[in-house]
Input
Amino acid sequence: MTQDVRRPLAGKVALVAGGTRGGGRGIAVELGAAGATVYVTGRSSSAGRSALDRPETIEETAERITAAGGLGIAVRTDHSRPDEVRALVDRIASDQDGRLDVLVNSVWGGDPLTDWEHPLWEQDVDTGLRLLRQAVETHVITSRYALPLLVARKSGLVVEVTDGNTARYRGSFFYDMAKSAVIRLAVAQAAELKPHGVAAVAITPGFLRSEAMLEHFGVTEDNWREAASQDPNFAHSETPAYLGRAVAALAADPDVMAKSGRALATWGLYREYGFTDADGTQPDFAAHWAENLAEQYGPLGDPL
Output
């Protein structure tokens, strides 16, 4: 059967854990645009908001997936609870005859838990450990129950969403621990999944123009460039769709095993796969950093 180049993931099934907003939503929608059936999960739904108390819901994401050309299925799930994750995976297995092709671990929710002002010895340890449980343990739990579906098919892709693909310190102890640990999760899963033909990678966006970031600058996606007067780096930001298109390209790549175990970035993958952001541009935050920020802050770092 000839693959539809416009819908290279037609017939594929994906789970995007943490797809309510931001990068997770962008990934979920773009997997749908490539033709996939996408289960999108999170704690914020039409039935009630999570502790973040933001307006975005998994149902909205599912609607966008379907509107983009896929099939979106919203399942409210707390990924810190193994029983809920097990039930989610059981549902996918039942609905899809055991099929799962792509697992995206994008659970985060750590912004209000991150202390950017104090070193470790001055931070609240309970808050820091909550961040690690929210941002790392959730990924472990989700992979534990979802991976058997990929292993059984002897194919597929696991994507760990992080911030930065280098060993460079990220500015806050617990934040740095979480984002670095997520990369290591990809490395470890890649090693264990290799004999089964399943790839695992970590991926980072550049300066992500998420809903929360737009809100922070007091702009919308229509007038976001006005925020560059507050932070010139924002002029080089990218939408969640850019990250989503990177993941969709990886999921459609028959040679993705060659990238297994690596920490990847949108700014490298767009050159290889040729995708663009929603406005047709190709943001490259690493190039911007090298030209404008490296002298002040040092090099971005070598990819892991």
